[in-house]
Each structure stands twice: as structure tokens, then as C-alpha cells.
Amino acid sequence: MNISEGQIEVIKTGFYSSIQDLGRFGQGHWGIPAAGAMDRQSFALANHLLQNDPNDACLEMTMLGDELKFIGYTEIVLTGAEASIQLNGSKHPINKPVKIKNGDILKIGPFTTGFRMYLGIKGGFQSPCILKSRSWYKGITENFRLKKGALLPFKTHQSKSNTPYAKVAIDESLLKNKTLDVYAGPEAEKLPRSTFEQLFEKNFHLSAQQNRMGIQLKEPLVNELKEILTAPVYPGTVQLTPGGKLLILMRDAQVTGGYPRILQLSQTAISCLAQKKQGESIRFNLVDTY
Fold this sequence. Notes:
Distance between the termini: 60 Å
Number of helices: 4
Order of helices and strands: EEHEEEEEEEHEHEEEEEEEHE
Number of strands: 18
Structural class: mainly beta
């Protein structure tokens, strides 16, 4: 192995982990989703703390962390969800960059607050870049979820500088805030006024029907809208199904859909929702009116 090439060996996998950057753009006309980090704020924080390029790829972990062995020197940071983090058996804090030596072992337990954690590494993970992105997506990249025994490449790095004294302010509201800012969707004006107002008068809960493509909410609405002709949809689009279920599209969502698009989440709201677990409640806050 070249001195400039390092690897992470996956000793034990968590629930669902994958390599993600900001996503794969400009491919929608081929039906290829953008993908990318579910919680972009935590992803951006990881790269910021390491002084990386904003698009450098991180490891995104969902609900439960992985156990990893480092082969090579580097610097890492963990952001997003809170969990028990151990580096060589010693407790390690979140949001704090740390230097890594050859043979170090990082072990991350179940998440106590939040649903997604990001492992940033100096220079970013060097997974294959396909269609201008390193984000894993089934059918586009060879891998779409982390497996035991996998080797994740990175460029080795040995810093001579000391740990910086400056601290970055961390926005903890991302994990605790339950209110999501939304805009009225293209078909919102077709809803009866009373139905539209219900969207902002009660709490909704996340169902078990969720993944990187979308999150379905438990509480139904009375729906008298007909399906629409196939139209563009985006991460954060809230669709109303014929059965009255609300389906919020996320980063791996398809690029078109036939259900009425009644709301659109803000980018901050998408990151906030990505940190919510099954059963947690959310509330919509209308930013504009129709």
C-alpha cells in the first residue's frame, strides 16, 4: 500500500451506513436521484471542523454506529446524533476533531439523541466518483450500504499542528426542534381550506415506513384530490396519497411522482427531519400562504 493511501476496515456494522457527499446533480433527466447526505447541516459541520472541501464524502450512520479499524494516519470528527463513542476503549466526545494513528479502533454505540451521525475524515473518503459524486446509491454505485469486512479508502494525513483553541458554535436545535418550516406545494390550493389548515393544527408522528427515499407519517388526512399527471418532485416534497397518507420525500427519492404535492420542506427542515426516529412527533410551520 502506498504511504499516501489509508483504509478503514469495517469490523462490525451498525443498522445502515453509507458514504455520502452533497449528492449527484444534473442527472434527473435520466431518472437518477440526487442522493447525498440526509442531514446536510451535520454533514457540513464535519467538513468545516476538518477544514475539508464542503463536498468531501463522509460516512453516514443511521440509528446505530459501526466499529472501525484505521489503517493509516489521519484526522476525524463525528457530528450529528449523540451516542456512546469510544476510541481505543476511551470515551470520545462528538464535534471534536481527533488525530488517528495506525491501528486505532473506533466504536460507536446506539444513538441516544438524533438518528444520523456523520464520520468526517481529513480529505474525505475516496470511494469511486461516479457521475460527479461519491454518494452510494443502489444501481449507480457498486456498494449501497456498508458491509462487514469492507475497506474504505482515504488519503493519509499527519498534522504537526496542535489542537486549535477556537471553538465552533454548535446548533443543537437540529436534534431537538420538532417544528418544520414548509412552503405550500403546487397542488396545495386544490385542498379544501379546512383540510389545508389541519396540516398546521396538529402533531404528526413518523411511522415505521421510512428509509433514505421517504418518510410516511402515521396520521391520515381526508383526501378528495385525484392523482396528478407525472410531475417533478424533490427531496422535501410532501405528497398526499390516495389513502390520505402524508409521504415526505428524502434524499434518495425518485425524480417524478403522481401524487399531489401539497407542501415543500425547507432545506433546514429536511436536515431536522433526518434526525427524527420512528414515533417522534413533528409539526408543520407554514412559511408562506396561498
